Amino acid sequence: MGDLTFHYSYIMIIILLVIGLWGMLGKRNLIKKIIGLNIFQTSIFLFFIKGALKEGATVPVIDPELGLEAASYFNPLPHVMILTAIVVSVATTGVALALMLTIYRNYSSLEEGDILERMGK
Amino acid sequence: MIKRYDSVIVDITCRIMVPFIQLFAIYVIFHGHYSPGGGFQGGVLLASSMILHRLSLGQKESYAKLAPRNASILGTGGMFLFMLTAILPIFFGGMFLDYSFLPIPGLESAMLRYYGILIVEIWIGIAVFGCLVVIFDRLTERRWG
Amino acid sequence: MRAASAIIIAAFAALMIYATSGLPVPGDPDAPGSGHVSQYYIEHSMEDTHTPNIVTAVLADYRGFDTLGETLVIFTASLACVLILARRIDRD
User: Domain residues of chain C, as ranges?
Assistant: First the structure.
């Protein structure tokens, strides 16, 4: 089965992920689903940034005193990916809110059951 | 539409705070080389200063300062200038997005890349600012119903 | 419906907790992710671009194509908001 030493910080990230997934799947209001999506994305950001840390290292801004060794700075590549992912998350939330506004204008409700009834299914 | 918030304290506080938030945002864009920051962070700070302006001072007065049409011109213009800076090195002997062939006279290759990064961060900041203000304006433009 | 989604989420959480045993120890400087490319970026960013901030240099210079795509994403999101929320003129 491998070495099951529990990395406790990853357990916290998984709890946040499960809260986000429960918000997306288990709630009936559409705004709560969008908030669940945001919580899920935040947990993924934390997971990547946690994987980029090194012990005894500092922020990836080159300090003239510390020199240019690779073991004294954090890994910069996950930081770059997460910057892109944060911007994509903002864009997705903006378009989702525009869709919520259109649904409310046409059906005057934001509950999943009411919208399906008024659509005639 | 967003009506003006009916309180003198909110009015004066937000009028004082908006220029300082914009100054800090421009600082974050220009110091992206030496401290955490850069184009996206500064652009979002600029957009949030404009959203504070719209929320606290009402739609009539805030649209007189920055109309939605001008915000969309800023957003598209930033994107267009970024593409221009990306295609420009092709005409001067380099590859796509290779900043060491930008036509700025009298600089060596590493300093050209330094200035290339700075110019690109400015265009990104302007594009993100314009696009986020356009999204906010379209979401709040008229009352429902 | 809610019971089914609760069972799915519980199974997914159990699978993820089991999968954390395969991850490297947090804070290990010899982890496989911080090996070849990011070591090159940390060591050569000062002489290639004179930029102390490695994240900005990677974002705007070494991986500039991804930044172009990301700006295109936010521009497309604003375009989508304009087109979704457009109203016909005779409805005023």
Answer: 36-92
